[in-house]
Design goal:
Chain lengths: 276, 276
């Protein structure tokens, strides 16, 4: 079972699922955006990180999903299952990190749940909004569109601080044909965008963080830059990395060789998903 | 560290926290309600329960928080960290239970996150609504008010199916002075209601589920009946169990003896919290 298989199964029952956030029409010309992301010890972080880093990143992951839809975050629910090893001072650090990211994103903590587990588990829900019908989706990329990223890539080894691209996302409204954030690596996330849009992609060049490799940019996760497409005639900010082309939906090439949509899959740690 | 200490600390920073749901003013004369609840293997359930029961109950816990505010549920995000022992058929059962409760509550699944952990962790966020300013809070109980529950109590050992009291909650709007759901046992939850309202309570009689004891009704959790107060002149449905009285805030008596606010505390499994 891969993460994508489970999401596909869920989507059959709930037509709202499939993008970085659920989009809920609401009065006053806004759509509400809902997203939730786990941060689990041993899966998303290790105890080598500081409590503040863990809290900051747990919130940043969800805020990045709001950025990917071109939205603004409003409220946040933070659920925490504390592990036996957590001490009061450590928990203080965790909340410092949580509040630091919330302040940066201008979002408010509205509540949450507290419990305990064998390993530390955070689940961060964010509610945001975007103008009605303007949310950036994964499904609008068209053949001939140019493919962009909002910044250089390299994966978690080379990116000590996550910066959700809220301003970048909002600038893409009405311009980008598809958008998502890169949380599980460029290869797997681009594969998802292409699948949602029923197109293929041709990568030409990949901007790298200092000392990062192409391999890491393609297959490591946690970059949280935006990945988006726009027609050639539309000027958008960002770094051009390739083109949307005709081909098997979900298929990706880089310098004319096939790229495996391998990345961080939460059901298998690392896995390969064959295009279609 | 007890659960209540952590919540108190959080509340200092986030003035919205303190009731069963966060209440967020919204256009069109409604307040949005947000709540999230963990269901963790070994904490909230064991593998003795069926997958369907676990899924059903995980959603029911959050829906019950909406009921406690007099609200109607709308959307739901379900995050699941799968344990190594979960098999595809078991996961199907879990989702069957989740969807069964969602259908009963007329709520839609809008999304979620999927990951893995050493033990099964579900976190269910529900967004609901209530007419502006009408949400039932914990903090409005006044001396002389009558204390009610929506049904007989007895704790999880005697209650195989959780039924969130959505209809009961909505009937209390404009009538009850304070309301919450009983998730951690009558004693601890009444203690919380009294603390929030800065009053004491005198219990006279406690309606029991078949073969349940007073001890279980007071200190076991998971009843999910509503606990509420109303002035003597206001007619409300439910079962009368006592009175709000003058006294140390949070103090409870039953048949003139003191009741310890002991119940399910997620920081200590079972713990005693001294009134105040």
């Amino acid at each position: 079972v891969t993460e994508d298989t489970i999401v596909k199964k869920l989507r059959r029952r709930a037509p709202l699922i499939g993008d970085d956030c659920a989009v809920i029409p609401s009065p006053h010309n806004v759509d509400l955006l809902f997203t939730t992301d786990f941060s689990i010890e041993g899966v998303h972080f290790t105890r080598k990180s500081t409590a503040e880093e863990i809290g900051y990143r747990a919130v940043a992951r969800s805020i990045s999903d709001i950025a990917a839809m071109g939205g603004k975050p409003l409220y946040c629910l933070v659920s925490i299952a504390l592990a036996p090893w957590t001490r009061p001072r450590w928990i203080d650090g965790l909340y410092r990190g949580i509040h630091k990211m919330l302040r940066k994103a201008k979002a408010s903590l509205a509540g949450g749940d507290i419990s305990h587990a064998d390993q530390l588990v955070c689940d961060v829900m964010v509610c945001g909004f975007v103008a009605s019908g303007k949310a950036l989706l994964r499904s609008g990329a068209r053949r001939g569109d140019i493919l962009y990223v909002s910044g250089p890539l390299g994966g978690w080894r080379h990116r000590p601080v996550v910066v959700p691209q809220l301003a970048a996302g909002r600038k893409l409204i009405g311009k980008a044909t598809a958008c998502m954030d890169i949380s599980d690596g460029l290869a797997l996330d681009l594969h998802r965008l292409c699948n949602a849009s029923k197109v293929a992609a041709k990568l030409d060049s990949i901007p790298l963080l200092k000392s990062a490799t192409i391999e890491q940019a393609l297959h490591d996760g946690e970059d949280y830059e935006l990945l988006y497409t726009a027609p050639p005639r539309v000027r958008v900010p960002g770094i051009r990395i390739g083109t949307i082309v005709k081909g098997t939906p979900g298929a990706i090439t880089f310098r004319d060789g096939p790229v495996s949509p391998r990345g961080y899959d939460h059901m298998r740690a690392t896995t390969t998903i064959s295009p279609q």
